[in-house]
Amino acid sequence: MEIGIDSFAAVPANKSISNAQAINELVERIELADQVGLDIFGIGEHHRKEFLDSATPLILAAAASRTKRIILTSAVTVLSAADPVRVFQNFATLDLISNGRAEMVVGRGSFIEAFPLFGFNLNDYDALFAEKLDLLLQIQQNETVNWSGQFRAPLKDQAIYPRPMQEKLPIWLGVGGTPASFVRAGELGLPLMVAVIGGETHRFRPLIDGYKKAGAEAGHDPKQLKVGLHSLGYVAESKDQAVADYYPGYAEMFTKIGKERGFPPVTKERFDAQNGTLGALLVGDPVEVAEKILRHSESLGGITRFTFQMDAGLTHEKLMKAIELIGSKVSPIVKAGS
């Protein structure tokens, strides 16, 4: 199983730290993740004041120049509000800079700011994504493209460059809990990245089974139907320390998001339940967290990738220590047991 980190490049909670410093510290964390043997680092895409990841490929390119082996990916690219040609060109260029280490996870996004920002109608939410995914996959497969659709000017015998170093630039489909999204990924034969930020992780098993069934019925090789899991988590030397570090920022962030979406404020009782045996949160000591990853994998029928999302107001120093622990203690246990 591949183990890695996803980051949304959160603006520092400490206002004395500039955004420039925060971005450079993020690149330091990616460099450390590479050094301690983690397999992948992903950067999200948001267009909000709280995050610095609106230009994901630029952050990844900076990291590419300072790393050697770690896979660099988006987490996720909001394809519905982007031009698939430019998305492909950006990540193909990243692939060249990194000597073949680029990937992307594409999705519709969980926030809506990108739609008015780039002139799209939120009512076209799914239609935009379906059409743009179709174009992106055609570009992935073909150097010269003939294509037409509803939301973009047609392409006729149009060559698209640069081409990546890899024979085929890996594209994963990022999903939440919509059954149709799982089926779509299976029908297309795309690897699946499942974001689980709450509830009990095992409840996604029927959706993953539906993904694999759709892929098999479409004639895809089961080996290409990979499943990754993206979850909120954090590792410290002890569980008490991990919870003490992580909970305050988590509560603040999700209370704010919940207020926007009509959800109740976060409570410690609810957090503890989510951090229990079956809950989606993975906040604890290295052994406990590693064992929980393996349990989640078993409950989902086997996963091939797991990424931690640790943005919760934590300091750079605490995040660096967590990355060290994940690389030196969590990852070896998971790889031995998977």
Describe this structure in words.
This protein is α/β, with parallel strands linked by helices and 338 residues long. It is 44% helix and 17% strand. The chain has a single domain (2-337), classed as Luciferase-like domain (TIM Barrel). The chain contains 11 helices and 12 strands. Strands 1, 2, 3, 4, 5, 8, 9, 10, 11 and 12 form a 10-stranded parallel β-sheet that branches. Strands 6-7 form a two-stranded antiparallel sheet. Helix 6 (179-188) links the parallel strand 8 (171-175) and strand 9 (192-196). The radius of gyration is 19 Å and the shape is globular.
List the helices and strands and how they pair.
Layout: E1 2-7, H1 19-35, E2 40-43, H2 56-64, E3 71-74, E4 77-78, H3 84-97, E5 104-107, H4 114-117, H5 125-141, E6 144-147, E7 155-159, E8 171-175, H6 179-188, E9 192-196, H7 205-217, E10 227-235, H8 239-261, H9 268-274, E11 282-284, H10 286-299, E12 305-309, H11 316-337
Parallel strand pairs: 1-2, 1-12, 2-3, 4-5, 5-8, 8-9, 9-10, 10-11, 10-12
Antiparallel strand pairs: 6-7
> In percent, how helical is the residue content?
40-55%
What portion of the residues fall into strands of 2 or more residues?
A: 15-25%
Count of discrete alpha- or pi-helical segments spanning 4 or more residues: 11
Order of helices and strands: EHEHEEHEHHEEEHEHEHHEHEH
- The N- and C-terminal alpha carbons lie at a distance of 6 Å
What is the structural class?
alpha/beta
Averaging pLDDT over every residue, what do you get? 95
Sheet bearing the most strands, described?
Answer: 10 strands, parallel
Q: How many separate domains?
A: 1
Q: In the CATH hierarchy, what is the class? A: Alpha Beta
| CATH topology assignment | TIM Barrel
